[in-house]
Amino acid sequence: MRAFLGSMTGRVFATLVLGILVTAALTQLLADAERQRVIDTYRDQHLLDRAEQLILATEIVPESARPAYLDIANRPGLLLKDVATETDAAAPVNSGFTQSLAARLGPRYALRSLSGRPAQCGIVYEQPVVFGLLSMTWRGTCENISVRLRDGDEMRLSVLPPRSVTGPERTDYTMAIALLLLSVGFLAYMVARMTTRPLKQLAQAAKDLGHDINHPPLDLTGADEIRQASAAFNAMQARIRQYIGQRTQMLAAITHDLQTPLTRMRLRLEKVSEPELQERLIGDLSAMQAMVREGLDLARSMDTTETMQMLDLDSLLDSVCADATDANQRVSLTGHAGMALLGRPLDLRRCLVNLIDNAVKYGHAAKVTVDRINGAARIRIRDAGPGIPEAELARVFDPFYRIETSRSRESGGTGLGLTIARNIAEQHGGSISLANHPEGGLEVTLMLPEFYPGR
Question: Domains, the chain, ranges and CATH?
Fold first, then answer.
């Protein structure tokens, strides 16, 4: 749940759901308030009619029979009774209900609002506010009114709250609320997915671009903004592909043009009469040729023109290790991955050859172990050398970086082998890490997923 809410889809979903629920609650609150206002207005009008009829009917009843008549005539919400003496003081200003009733009865009746209110005015009712979840005190008309009839008799009219605000049978909103929440949640989730799906596609395309510059371009579908973003992304991919192609062609041309003068120089060095000088010059020339070749290999390691195909990892490892053994290198292979990879065979072979050659060149032996972990192939190559200082483990992947104590020019290294291997591994969705083994030597771990990401 935390991961879902942290995603773009989860945030849009939560925002939509909360926004709709708050809007629905406010709408229900306003609707309940308006409903209550209409009910109160209707009730006041009804009470005015009843009060007028009750007072007029009471006046024509003989004074001695009025108590008995009022016991029968009084109904809930309106109470009229005879009082010998007035105990409550008059209010400073007559209420609106009192003024309306006085206007109906005429000037021959004296009506005054009293300061004392009936005890029933403080009753608490369950009001249907915000889906019936709140309660409130009755706020409608509730007061005592002094009424002097035309014959001078003093009466007290008490306007009381109704027995209940709503009917005895309340409407059950449980099912309606549940359906509302389900529909709101479903619609919010669909809108969130529809909104974030193009962003996920762009993110996946960017990830695929990092692994394969020749990945098919995005389809120009969806809203105008999404089509514009997809078109811009496709244009960027085309420009990057063009730049990489131009760089590779430039390096290839430089390498080709350098090979010819280097070959002529080597032929001319054969005519040098001093053997020691000749040997040193030929060594420098060989180092230059090796750097040119590995520079071209580095450029090719970032090119992805080779076709992706399914290949058996165990067969590839067995072939690479067998070739190393035939070249009199101390290489052993143990373990079994039992999985197929979608990748570029020549690039993967170059990656494995570089790692094994490094182990043999600087650690005198290569012990290759392969297994399968979490759906990925794990290839560990351990040498028998002194290892690498911890501070240098991350820097050895930099192009042309060498640790002089173990990787000197006399050993033939140019500092590009690990860089090339890492580029190839990352293009296949994998990774390379280095660590000094507790029992001695450096261990290189190559992780390759079973299927190439994004394919």
Answer: 2-159 (no CATH), 212-305 (1.10.287.130), 307-449 (3.30.565.10)
